[in-house]
């Protein structure tokens, strides 16, 4: 392609939800409420797991990290979504767009790995309760969490750096409600097979790898639960795992639908709808499913709230 047709793009226009302009005010209110609930729920969990001594265990250490991660993850995309709903044209600078791509994929990768670590922690707790404190020592679970953050935040650097060096053919309109790799590659003049393949393999490595660990851990837990002689005990355990698996299924299902598939036959309207689930819906559900339904967390919360009384 002639280099004269290449344009140095300094900013991008985020299209947002052009087909929903007639109901953008109710959607803005709904998204704002869900975002606020997500922030409050996750902040409560971060606070309670940090300052309540009875929750200083590996499971709640993971939950505290997970809730902090959810606050960061939703804050990468949801504010942009709110701006999209209130403006006809949302302009984002080139560098800010790349930063949003990096943090979205980096924090999303950390979330996948933390989900796998949490599932493994529950597996050890149920399969080897007598050796649990030895296996999941403070050194082990802190290092495990640290590696989740390191791997998740390092791997997306490669595709983001490559994307920053690409040429764009005049158009700077991103067909999404935030900056993402695949919509940006549609605007590129160069051949994008390398970038698409690299993004596919990195996403597959994190998503499929962590999903495999998560599912294997839960299957092993279910097999152990089936051996519980008490029907009431089995029912209680299965009700807990069913809610956990629902959140895991929604998150991994929507992420794999977009990132672990061929990229040439994309329906971006469908992608936008699916992206809303893992950007907004699951972060609202996670505090309820993982912690606020937990008896220990509720007891600790009451203890903190009514300590002076």
UniProtKB/TrEMBL annotation:
PROSITE patterns per the UniProt record, alphabetical: G_PROTEIN_RECEP_F1_1, G_PROTEIN_RECEP_F1_2
Keyword Transmembrane helix set for record: yes
Gene3D superfamilies given in the database record: Rhodopsin 7-helix transmembrane proteins (1.20.1070.10)
Leader sequence residues: none
Keyword Zinc: no
Compartments, record wording: Cell membrane
Coarse class of the protein's main subcellular location: membrane
Topology in the lipid bilayer: Multi-pass membrane protein
Pfam families xrefs: 7tm_4
Record keywords, A-Z: Cell membrane, G-protein coupled receptor, Membrane, Olfaction, Receptor, Sensory transduction, Transducer, Transmembrane, Transmembrane helix
Domain G-protein coupled receptors family 1 profile residues, every copy: 41-290
Ranges that cross the membrane: 27-48, 60-82, 102-120, 140-163, 197-226, 238-260, 272-292
PANTHER family: OLFACTORY RECEPTOR
Record family assignment: Belongs to the G-protein coupled receptor 1 family.
Protein name (database record): Olfactory receptor
Source organism (scientific name): Gekko japonicus
Highest classification ranks of the organism: Eukaryota, Metazoa, Chordata, Craniata, Vertebrata
This protein's encoding gene: LOC107125180
């Amino acid at each position: 392609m002639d280099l004269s047709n290449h344009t140095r793009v300094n900013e991008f226009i985020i299209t947002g939800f052009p087909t929903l302009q007639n109901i953008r005010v109710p959607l803005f209110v709904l998204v704002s409420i869900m975002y606020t609930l997500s922030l409050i729920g996750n902040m409560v969990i971060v606070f309670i797991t940090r300052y309540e001594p009875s929750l200083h265990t590996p499971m709640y250490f993971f939950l505290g990290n997970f809730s902090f991660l959810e606050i960061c993850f939703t804050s990468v995309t949801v504010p942009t979504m709110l701006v999209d709903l209130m403006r006809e044209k949302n302009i984002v600078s080139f560098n800010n767009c790349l930063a949003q791509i990096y943090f979205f994929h980096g924090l999303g990768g950390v979330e996948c790995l933390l989900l796998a670590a949490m599932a493994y922690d529950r597996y050890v707790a149920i399969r080897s309760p007598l050796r649990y404190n030895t296996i999941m020592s403070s050194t082990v679970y802190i290092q495990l969490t640290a590696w989740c953050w390191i791997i998740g935040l390092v791997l997306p650097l490669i595709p983001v750096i490559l994307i920053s060096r690409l040429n764009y053919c005049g158009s700077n309109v991103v067909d999404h409600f935030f900056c993402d790799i695949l919509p940006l590659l549609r605007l590129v003049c160069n051949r994008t097979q390398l970038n698409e393949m690299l993004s596919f393999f990195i996403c597959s490595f994190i998503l499929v790898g962590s999903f495999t660990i998560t599912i294997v851990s839960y299957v092993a837990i279910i097999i152990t639960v089936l051996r519980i002689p008490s029907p009431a005990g089995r029912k209680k355990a299965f009700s807990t795992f069913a809610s956990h698996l629902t959140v895991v299924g929604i998150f991994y299902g929507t992420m794999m639908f977009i990132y672990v598939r061929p990229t040439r036959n994309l329906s971006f309207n469908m992608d936008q709808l699916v992206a809303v689930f893992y950007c907004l819906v699951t972060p609202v559900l996670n505090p309820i499913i993982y912690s606020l339904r937990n008896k220990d967390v509720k007891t600790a919360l009451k203890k903190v709230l009514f300590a002076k009384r």
